[in-house]
């Protein structure tokens, strides 16, 4: 097992190296130049452009730019083109803002989707199954921005509760309890809206996988032996039905980077998604490349976690040293 994990880790590092080369080349060779970010400014002369290119190493060959970029990134000296602030500091700040939104949304999605999907599968063609199917497709097709605007209007009009931003301005000075309560109010609504589509989609996958498993021969054999239904479905069937979702759970981790740009924009939530979107509009290459690198690390981390979970969940998987 240790040998397998070691090989897997080395493979992930090699993959990360090639991803860094490809992503850097794609971004830096794309049309446009960050030195031309403000061409309409009459004071922006050719000399200013040249000085900017020299300051950010844009006048050097591509391979040298690659080396200098990652050297600055790992030494925490990489600066943003947009505001000349340390890139890692900006990402870390937005990471802390996105983390509670990601945790609450993921928790709601996975804790609600599985009971709904399992219950619908065990009561196939029932009123509950038809109802969950209808509402699942309804929330999948409903635009998130439309539902977000309706929710904001409802909360403000009927409860007079501020829901925009991380917190209400000035609430920090009225006490720790009121500040925590205010943060919770601002967090719950965007988290729930972000989880609706995830619950709808994941519950459909759970239902389909559970239906496929309970029709297998070993489930019929377990029933024929007289085992209780709870033991048949929740011990034997559910464990095998969960295997495909281990991979899905591992790939949830990169969602911390992307988040939901629409939800974050509507609720003025300064998260990772908005940081990447603003960086693309401003041609802020250091931020774009750093977010790509962090996203690649999270994807590889998610696949590594999935491999470990597979080993724990399915005893049929054997790892042998080569």
Give a written overview of the molecule.
With 322 residues, this protein is mainly alpha-helical. The protein has a domain at 90-268: MetI-like fold (Orthogonal Bundle). It has helices spanning 2-28, 46-55, 62-74, 87-122, 127-141, 144-159, 176-214, 217-224, 229-241, 243-250, 255-258, 261-266, 272-281, 285-313. The longest helix has 39 residues, at 176-214. The N and C termini lie close together (11 Å). The relative contact order is 0.13. The model has no long low-confidence stretch (mean pLDDT 81).
The H/E string reads: HHHHHHHHHHHHHH
Unreliable parts: none
- Radius of gyration from CA coordinates: 25 Å
SS-based structural class? Answer: mainly alpha
Please name the CATH architecture of the domain at 90-268.
Orthogonal Bundle
Mean pLDDT over all positions = 81
Distance between the termini: 11 Å
For the biggest sheet, the summary is:
none
Q: How helical, in percent, are the residues?
A: over 70%
Might you state the CATH topology name of the domain at 90-268? MetI-like fold
The number of helices is 14
Beta-strand segment tally: 0
Proportion in β-strands:
under 5%
Can you identify the CATH class of the domain at 90-268? Mainly Alpha
What gross morphology would you assign? globular
